[in-house]
């Protein structure tokens, strides 16, 4: 995904258009709703695995499905680029228990994460 990715429909078909963008210079994905930053999904790359570390959705966008749309779009982008992913973010880990379309690309936590060094 790039900054000129096509707009996609958000969780509400009658709502404003949304887009999920990869911002590698910030190590995060962003979701824009009607052109406004609504949330981020932060990640780090470890041993070739994209590890999702934290998600945040701004208060005014909470409870409307934007976090789920952002995580789905971010993981879909990782998979489309031939990558694998893992998560330490509680939201992403919970999301993965409900949605399984990307399970084939789910990787074990890299040793640096599993050993706790990422969190030190």
UniProtKB/TrEMBL annotation:
Region feature (Disordered): 1-21
Molecular function GO labels: transferase activity
Ranges for domain N-acetyltransferase: 21-107
Keywords: Transferase
Name of the protein this chain belongs to: N-acetyltransferase
UniProt source species: Miniimonas arenae
Lineage, uppermost ranks: Bacteria, Bacillati, Actinomycetota, Actinomycetes, Micrococcales
